[in-house]
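User: Structure please.
Assistant: Input sequence and predicted structure:
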Amino acid sequence: MNTAVWIVIAVVVVLLVVAIALAVARRQQASRRVEAGRIRENAAERTTEVEERQALADESAAKARRAQADAEAKSAEARRLTLQAETHQGDAATSRDELDAEFARANKIDPDVKNRAGTGDVDKAAAEKMVEPDATRTQQDENHIGGHRAP
């Protein structure tokens, strides 16, 4: 056989190999296109699910912000009420001290209340006896109507 025949056979073989390689490459591309299409379809189906999850996450975050705001408002209210209670406690203590001072002054000028050993301290039992008869009399007045006991 002649060299020209071998060259023609070699060219034909090379062309066949190239043609087969191109056919295989086209099949792989087609297969990859099909696979990419399936992946896109699956992703599109999951888009709704992901959007629902995102909506749920956004809703949860909004609830958390509302709860945080409510907690901060309640904390502020608690602080305000604590300050108010402290103010009332201070006012009550001042009033109690003023009341004690009034009783002490009344006991000091009352000749029926004995002072202990000239110290200026008032005998509390004697002072209470001076106050109790009035309280007892008021209770008795409430229990008696026109000289009769209330039913």
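The chain has a mean pLDDT of 83.
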